[in-house]
Design brief:
The protein is an alpha+beta fold. Helix content is 30%, strand content 25%. It is built from 9 helices and 11 strands.
Length: 331
């Protein structure tokens, strides 16, 4: 078989390519052509997509997400301390993006794994707790000291039930920490200690891994939260907004008034003042009169929470004393 094409065969081959509209401007060998968007048959712009390249979060987006989970860590500290009656601190020490398969490979063991559905998110969330922390919490909830020397590799159904007395409130705090971004409602779908059973997402899916570390007198361990990137992606703009500066001046006035209108406030009526010596104070007897610096008919001072706010006139309302506000004092 002749491996070299004749000139006639080459011309015939080129005619075939030209007739089919092929692009003959090939790049030199070893040089990859740049990815240029092309137009499909229906006039839609089509661009090249690398399906193996993970979605990347920018630095500003990651920082915005970290702020929310740092606040969540403080909520978890208070909840764990309250539930276990121990001084415990929980810090968010890392927020990373990675493939789910990579996260599974580096999952430290032994751990208790909870598959959690958080509506309205469609994909499940994974929460893990180191068994040393969780088993110590179980011992503490049941009345023990929380100090354990031997930790089992797996939990019984009863131990899982007791452990959820801590896991449930922790999930509440996670939802509370994200409430400004999205309202979540959690429910535990499954629980186990075998990491091989945690393959609930494709290995190539990008996830957000949040690492909380809990430390206390006798309880040391970690909580790890895994959220699919597909759930976080529609909320990135909300995560990046600053909760303090994103409002216009005065925009929170109505909300603030609604929250503080029903707060109880202490007010008093100050009829006047007098300066006397300690000797005179000790000699006071029933019936003695202490003259005040305030003249008859002069407005009384009305302090609010200890600070002068109004002036007014003392009078009677039925069988009770009252004060009529005369003026608002300058601050």
């Amino acid at each position: 078989m002749n491996e070299i094409l004749s000139n006639e065969e080459i011309d015939t081959l080129l005619d075939m390519f030209r007739s089919e509209g092929a692009n003959l401007e090939a790049e030199p060998a070893g040089i990859a052509a740049p990815a240029v968007p092309s137009v499909g048959a229906d006039d839609r712009v089509v661009s090249t997509i690398d399906l193996l390249k993970p979605n990347r979060l920018g630095r500003e987006q990651m920082r915005g997400i970290e702020r929310y989970f740092e606040s969540t860590g403080k909520l978890l500290s208070a909840t764990i301390s309250d539930r276990l009656r121990l001084d415990t601190r929980c810090d968010c020490v890392a927020v990373e993006q990675m493939r789910y398969g990579t996260w599974l490979e580096h999952l430290p063991g032994p751990v208790a794994i909870y598959i959690v559905q958080m509506e309205p998110w469609k994909l499940p969330v994974v929460l893990t707790a180191s068994t040393s922390l969780l088993y110590g919490a179980v011992d503490r909830i049941l009345g023990g000291s929380g100090k354990v020397t031997k930790v089992p590799k797996d939990f019984t159904t009863a131990e899982h039930t007791v452990a959820e007395a801590l896991i449930g409130p922790c999930l509440d705090r996670i939802c509370e920490g994200l409430a400004e971004v999205v309202q979540l409602k959690w429910s535990i779908q499954n629980r186990f200690c075998n990491p091989s059973m945690a393959q609930i997402l494709p290995s190539q899916d990008v996830v957000l891994s949040v690492y909380f570390q809990s430390t206390g007198d006798c309880l040391i361990g970690d909580l790890r939260l895994v959220i699919p990137f597909a759930s976080i992606e529609p909320l990135l703009e909300r995560f990046c907004r600053d909760s303090i500066t994103r409002h216009e001046p005065g925009a929170m006035k109505a909300s603030l008034q609604k929250n503080v209108n029903d707060m109880p406030i202490d007010i008093a009526v100050q009829l006047g003042q007098a300066n006397i010596r300690l000797r005179q104070l000790l000699q006071l007897q029933p019936g003695d009169v202490v003259p005040l610096a305030t003249r008859l008919g002069q407005p009384a001072i009305v302090p609010v929470m200890g600070k002068p706010k109004f002036t007014g006139h003392v009078g009677r309302i039925g069988n009770r004393f009252g004060v009529q506000v005369a003026d608002v004092m300058a601050q």
